[in-house]
Amino acid sequence: MAVKTQASLLLQKQLRDLMKNPVDGFSAGLVKDDNIFEWSVTIIGPPDTLYDGGYFNAIMTFPANYPNSPPTVKFTSEMWHPNVYPDGRVCISILHAPGDDPNGYELASERWMPVHTVESIVLSIISMLSSPNDESPANVEAAKEWRDKRDDFRKKVSRIVRRSQEDF
Fold first, then answer.
1. Which of 44, 109, 142, 164 is a Cys-bridge partner for 54, taking CB atoms 3.0 to 4.6 Å apart?
2. What's residue 104's pLDDT?
């Protein structure tokens, strides 16, 4: 039998809490029942945003030393956003390793802290969809388009939203 680590016990508790009290805007569960460290998340595009009505799937992968280190989150659905790398990885402050930012962009208080939960992470991603940060983009092309060619950006996102609805 596998040893129950602090990380796996905490993740099991968070999963139970989300099953008991679902949160508007997303659903989450395990990719495979025997791996508590890999979650499947579906985010519903937030109302009154360009992503409104879309269904975006992502994989959240937790490290063995969670909650001391943050998980990684990667969209498996197509995504066009300044804060999402072209390969789907989400780039937001709370998913960055704890402590001071070696590049000096973020305060330690904005970065990962062990108090974050699956819920607070996904709510931060939903917030990111609502208001992109184009100051330090993960996807430079998307950030340029967001800044300089908003109509093109809008069209691309609305195509992605339509596709996500067809795939859902």
1. 164
2. 83
Q: What pTM, to 2 d.p., does this model score?
A: 0.93
Residue 3 has pLDDT above 80, yes or no: no
The alpha carbon of 21 is separated from its chain's Cα centroid by a whole number of angstroms, namely 20
The CATH superfamily of 6-167 is Ubiquitin Conjugating Enzyme (3.10.110.10)
Residues classed as catalytic: 91
Query: What is the SS3 assignment for 42?
Result: strand
Q: Which ranges in the chain belong to alpha helices (H)?
A: 6-20, 118-130, 140-148, 150-167
pLDDT band at residue 100 under the 50/70/90 scheme: confident
Rounded distance between C-alpha atoms, residue 132 and residue 142, angstroms: 10
